[in-house]
Amino acid sequence: MRIIDPHVHVWKNDPRFPWAPETAVPPNHDATPEMLLELMAANGVEKTVLVQSIHYRWDNTYTAHAVETYPDKFMGVCRVNPEDPDAPDHLSYWTEKHGFHGVRLSPAAGAAGAWYGGELTRRIFGRAEELGVPMLLVTKKHGAENAAPDRLPELAKLLERHSGLTMVIDHMADCAIDQPDHLQLLLNLAVFPSVYVKISHTWWLSETAYPWADTHDMVKKVYHTFGAQRIMWGTDWPVCLNAAAYPQTLSVVRDEMDFFAPEDMEWILGKTALQIWDFPESS
Prior knowledge:
alpha/beta
């Protein structure tokens, strides 16, 4: 069974790759490709998608460096500034010049994410569709409130206009386990055949210890609604280390969630991601 991790971040305290000016408190530890490769080898993970770290904001150079150094192991998803009028052209640059395959947007709830409903967002969606690259969406928490699934109905309107765009909802939209109306907003997106969901972040959403059993019913509903060929696991390393070890983010899906049909596991652990990220053949 091929195991592909579609969600990891890398960074390094290195003056060659400076933090973004907005990063007031940069990480005090490294999360390098070499560290990741050791974890992958120890856990049977063949390839990984590197999602641009927010610590660098819109300068995707370090992620590009990692992909270019290990092209048989990594593919990259970039970030662009969603409030910069040149964002669509920046997406083209990182895609065409540096081989990124995807872009991530992270609209917050409330006024902080007001840009999400504007014309520029529609242009970014359109450019990603033209380039044939997926878009990742993470809904961000607003203050002390729970997750921000209120952005999902807006997404549905955008998808009606961009039916050719592959959309990946990160971390089940971080829907709160005790608010089924939040989850329903996510499940409603299953009507769009180009929408995929990462069943990650159970360690973040849970109020219990591993295997975070209070989140399994949510995962089961996503599985039955979207089907195995549109869902995928993911580690979110090294962010996961706040609550979970790298191996646990894999074993919770492979070994603890007993509601997956055996024939579906190869999709959830690898084949779904490979539909979206066509990794080059190993040399």
